Amino acid sequence: MLQSEEDPVTVEKVDQVLVQLLLEFQNELPFHFVLDKVHKQLNDQLSVKCFLPTFNFLGNLLKTVPNVAQSLLTQYVPLLDLLCSALVYPDEVLKTSVVNVWLQLLCTSGDTGAQYLPIATRDRLCILLLQTLNSASSAQLIKNCA
């Protein structure tokens, strides 16, 4: 629904309800289900432009339920690689959302968050963030990258 709905207010409400529902469960199984679905959707699509609401949801989920970050960092490396790939998409709004996901991932998992990343993913992320910062023109993207 996050991808098919075009009304931003409705998408935001759906996002809030999903995050709240997941928070209420207090069980890892629903988080894994959601992360599996996000990974499958990102993996099956050629264009990442339609995934802005999904990236926003993922950032909100990580902000609201910090323990999801640990699972994502350690058990969903292919999803992390797709998050890296989204940084090469030319849309700055999308990049801002993806950088926010990375910020939430690395900040909510504490100082050791980057240590859980595979070295190749961490190196790729650093390069992509520097490239994104170098070419950024929107204030929010620059702020998120910095």
Keywords:
single chain; 146 residues; mainly alpha; 0% strand; globular; Immune_Signaling-Apoptosis_Reg
Descriptive overview:
The protein has 146 residues and is mostly helical. The protein is built from nine helices and no strands. It is globular and about 40 Å long. The mean pLDDT is 81.
What distance separates the N and C termini?
32 Å
Sequence of secondary-structure elements: HHHHHHHHH
Number of strands: 0
The proportion of strand residues reads: under 5%
Q: State mean pLDDT (0 to 100 scale).
A: 81
Q: Based on the structure, what is the oligomeric state of the protein chains?
A: single chain
If helices are DSSP runs of H or I spanning 4 or more residues, what is the number of helices? Answer: 9
Low-confidence stretches: none
The helical percent reads over 70%
> Pairing-aware structural class of the strands and helices?
mainly alpha
Shape designation = globular
Largest sheet: none
Question: What Rg is obtained from the alpha carbons, in whole angstroms?
Answer: 14 Å
